[in-house]
Amino acid sequence: MRVEEIPEMAATAAKTVPVMMPYITAFFMPRQAGDRPDVVPKEAVNFAFIGQFAESKQPDCIFTIEYSTRTAMEAVYELLGVERGVPEVFNSTYDIRSLLHTLNRVRDGQGIALPGPEILRKLLMNKLDETVIGELLENAHLIAK
Ligand SMILES: Cc1cc2nc3c(=O)[nH]c(=O)nc-3n(C[C@H](O)[C@H](O)[C@H](O)COP(=O)(O)OP(=O)(O)OC[C@H]3O[C@@H](n4cnc5c(N)ncnc54)[C@H](O)[C@@H]3O)c2cc1C
């Protein structure tokens, strides 16, 4: 498509179907244990509940796509006796390794270029070398030794 074709195509070839984002309020209603059925209720052998309104065994909060996915995995593994664990929920917000890896992604995989003259950069890198901080930064591909 060429730029000159855009007005003509916008006027004749594009269809816009207006849609509304669904409300998310139901997810945040107060609840307590027992309000939602367990994914695989006690003694159930051929049915399960999946999705946001089923109670997973994982210590996860609802709302996320991951929660729904976990309930489906939990249901299949448990009912079919599959010997696989449902991926665990972990506190990635507080895990410095996850945060540094995120930083690497945010920077499009580019490492951090330390500012300043070469001699200072080398001095700093030597200081970081062999330290836990250096190892963490290197593992997250933020610096290269
Ligand atoms: C506004 C908004 C923003 C969100 N943002 C995020 C986000 O940033 N990150 C994130 O991880 N999650 C987000 N979520 C949550 C995420 O979208 C949902 O948790 C996820 O889509 C739930 O997936 P699901 O397959 O369990 O259910 P759904 O995607 O709700 O699928 C259920 C399906 O069942 C169909 N259905 C219902 N009743 C029947 C029936 N009787 N017969 C046949 N079919 C039926 C429905 O039409 C629907 O297609 C957001 C949700 C909303 C509403």
Describe this structure in words.
The protein has helices at about 5-10, 65-80, 95-105, 120-130, 130-140. The chain has about 140 residues and is mainly α. The protein has a domain at about 90-140. About 10% of the residues are buried. The mean pLDDT is about 90. Bound molecules: flavin-adenine dinucleotide. Flavin-adenine dinucleotide binds near residues 24 and 65. This is Oleate hydratase. It comes from Acetobacter estunensis. GO terms for molecular function: FAD binding; oleate hydratase activity.
Summarize the structure.
This is Oleate hydratase. This protein has helices at 6-12, 65-80, 96-106, 118-128, 132-139. It is mainly alpha-helical and 145 residues long.
Features:
single chain, 145 residues, mainly alpha, 0% strand, flat, binds flavin-adenine dinucleotide, FAD binding, Oleate_hydratase, oleate hydratase activity
Element layout with pairings:
Elements (H helix, E strand, L loop, with lengths): L5 H7 L52 H16 L15 H11 L11 H11 L3 H8 L6
Flavin-adenine dinucleotide (FAD) binds next to helix 2.
